[in-house]
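Onboarding guide, step 5: your first structure request.
Type a short instruction followed by the sequence, for example:

Predict the 3D structure of this protein.
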Amino acid sequence: MPQHITVVDYDPKWPLRYAEERKRIAEILKENCISIYHMGSTSVPGLAAKPIIDIMVVVKSLEKADAVAEKFSEIGYDYLGEFGITGRRYLRKGGDERTHQIHIFQADDWNNIGRHLAFRSYMLTHEKERDEYAKIKKALAEKFPYDIDGYCDGKENFMREMEQHALSQYDGTWDKLYIAARKVQYTREFSPLIEAGAVSAALLTEKGNIYVGVCIDTACSLGMCAERNAIANMITNGESRILKIVAVMPDGKAGMPCGACREFMMQLDKAAGQIEVLCDYETQKVIRLKSLIPDWWSTEQFETK
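The system replies with structure tokens like these:
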């Protein structure tokens, strides 16, 4: 039976349904999972949508995702491979009357990851276009109630135009940094006395390069924070000016640099106080380094140089 296309007004229960499914997905993918996002129209408050929860997952390895396809089947998903988009893994729950869709991409596939994040960001911040999109979808659902191709073709031009606008305005720097940090975040055990990787960090330099690092924990005080490891990587490559930095804790949340890392960054150059530090990835809340280390002790020395 063909899929019945219905477009309904925004339902505040959609984010709750996403959150429930997110937990199941994270449990299946485990350390292979970098990040999970609520995407599509159901992720945009106020936007009418087909009542299907769209989820984008970024993983370290598509091969490892393929290896747990059976576990997705156990929670009701059809694992359909690329399904028309190179480098994607597409999953759906509910068959023709689907309730959820998952789009899995590997971390280095920024083209696909970025365009999805950009479109969501654009819809969240552009009310006029959001309302126009809702009208188009409702009209198409009435015209093509059992013709998914007709429905999709009808909104194609609008989607392409909005995607171009979205990409031109979208700054995905924090997303790139977070994904880069998560990509290297996994436990390494070198000896009974040394392990690494529980915390990771990524920074963006003035030249536009991204450097990453992980924490190194030892049985004494010889270890190194992930932030300082990333900074050492940057210095090794001949740079010293940081614009943005994120540290990712074992639970996947952004964390604040310790006092030693703050001090180390402040000593790098006189503009270091302006470095942006990510406080929360979900909201992309940011704070300047100078607010984390007020009345820094050596400002005058930089001013005399």
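Each response can be followed by summary notes, for example: The CA atoms of residues 138 and 261 lie 52 Å apart.
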